[in-house]
């Protein structure tokens, strides 16, 4: 079966199709005539498009309020609607980082000489089904709106995305059919490292397996041998906890308890967990949960006046600004954990300033960003029901969710991903006959580059950006770098996220951690690390470990 035929089948699964009258009338009597064809009743258009010699796709959760149509099969449904006033300024910034990277590459006289990159950027609404619809739209040729669904071959070379692991799983399953590589900037599930299931998946963010290794080394470093574990009731928390226990097997560290924050949180369940924490001699508690899962738990935790706990947090939580208020410091101050490394994109701030309704008068996403930031409409209509903007609005520091470019993390990952594609394509265009993925003595013609050829060079790419090495291992994972973040009291009594070290995965085993201990402020505003152990239970734990090893 050809790729084009497969694409038709995939599209049929998620798109509403209509058949010609001649086909409908012949269903019960004969096969459809050769002239019949399927057509798409509604299209899903990208938010930003630029033409180029080689087109890459981008998928970002620009909105987080998906309006799902009623798919009951009794009438023609309306198009999937991501639009609304709940635009995510951070994700919008991530998309602009991709646009900036492409602009820089196209202006670079050395990289991709005489060739340019183009892009089609889509909004996934942070929802797997919409991400699926976006990637299918990318695959459907230049324009869904002006072409029949199954007649145009795709010019898509690679995809930047998606954000959540669940979205990347769906997108990768589709792209691997066409051997099109994708690079995720935020999907961390260790499951995506399985090359049998996800052969075209790459990422510029470390997988959860690396973060678990880093946490295990941190516990050993501070001699925290008796710890508690708190996790979410989902696959992420389950796999992370399982991975940590595996890493701790050959160490002196033991887990005193493992408690689960229920998916449907109740105060009663929270108080039961807190009773376990209060009664335990383990004063160091690891958290494998997200901001959303921890929010109701911490609300009750603070009412119980439990202090003296040394929290160790994962990257999804360690820079959660929602917990930076001064009311949290007595309970969460001293928290330590790992975060994706800061990067530096020198032109990002200036580039964001140019993205406004004056320069993009016809772009709906830009209009919605303005409505979200200012509460006014740059082009008033009966739909928005917002007051008109004055035209004098400018992006200020107060719009930090969008304009914060001092320490980009996810945006920097997007930036690196685009450059990884550019460097790989550059190497492909400079290939030597008889080398690389080609079976004969010739290289690919610049006007006939195939995605599977690019994947070979992605697997081999190695370059530096802002002093950081960018490369992929055999599983498509990137070199693991983490900043070590400590929650300290800020100048206004709030919590400040202070970098106190790093985890460098390029170093030899046992030398990856670099910690500035004199800069750390511990729980209870102490300058020395907590001591977390219980002699008798620790001895019992070690005996159990020995027995498991002895009878393995």
TrEMBL record:
GO terms for cellular component: plasma membrane
Ranges of residues in domain Receptor ligand binding region: 94-489
Domain of life (superkingdom): Eukaryota
Membrane protein topology class: Multi-pass membrane protein
UniProt xrefs under InterPro entries: ANF_lig-bd_rcpt, GPCR_3_Ca_sens_rcpt-rel
Pfam assignment, any one: ANF_receptor
One annotated GO molecular function: G protein-coupled receptor activity
Leader sequence segment: 1-18
Main location: membrane
UniProt entry keywords in alphabetical sequence: Cell membrane, G-protein coupled receptor, Glycoprotein, Membrane, Receptor, Signal, Transducer, Transmembrane, Transmembrane helix
Compartment(s) of residence: Cell membrane
Protein name: Extracellular calcium-sensing receptor-like
Lineage: Eukaryota, Metazoa, Chordata, Craniata, Vertebrata
